[in-house]
Write a structure and sequence with these properties.
Blueprint lengths: L7 E3 L9 E8 L2 E7 L5 E3 L15 H13 L17 E2 L11 E4 L3 E10 L2 E6 L2 E6 L5
Parallel strand pairs: 5-6
Antiparallel strand pairs: 1-2, 2-3, 3-4, 6-7, 7-8, 8-9
């Protein structure tokens, strides 16, 4: 049985939280808008009882994005390289030259170990939060 317009109904008010409302508008058999008896606010009908919903199937776009991101991701990151403990930790500066295995203290990323030198003036450093590509050996 559906309620007619102007009937009293329980609904949650988004402004004051009161549940007593008056039906203002309907679309077919469904209640579309209600008015709060306490504050006078007009809003969509929200049932005070939680409605059990069935999970929706993933869209084709979401499925494609998940599949493509899995293909591009590495299976597991390689372990960090062994640091050269015979050399002291050096503070990071773009002008300092580093070698593989050197320990670097960066102001933002913290302590890291140089993994590789992919090109002139570049070094890949493994920090606790991940790998970063940094500049080194730059002329002052």
């Amino acid at each position: 049985m559906t309620l007619p317009v102007a009937a009293d109904i329980e609904a949650v008010c988004s402004k004051c939280g009161i549940v007593w409302h008056v039906v203002v508008a309907k679309v077919g058999d469904k209640i579309a808008k209600v008015q709060c008896k306490q504050c006078g606010g007009l809003h969509r009908y929200k049932s005070p009882q939680p409605v059990a919903t069935q999970p929706r199937a993933a869209s084709k776009t979401a499925t494609r994005k998940k599949a493509s991101s899995k293909r591009g991701a590495r299976a597991s990151a390689p372990p960090p390289p062994e640091p050269d403990l015979s050399r002291p930790v050096q503070p990071y500066k773009m002008t300092t030259r580093f070698e593989v295995g050197d320990r670097v203290q960066h102001a933002t990323f913290g302590l890291g170990v140089v993994e590789e030198l992919p090109g002139p003036g570049k070094m890949q450093v493994c920090f606790g939060e991940g790998r970063k590509l940094l500049i080194h050996g730059r002329e002052p």
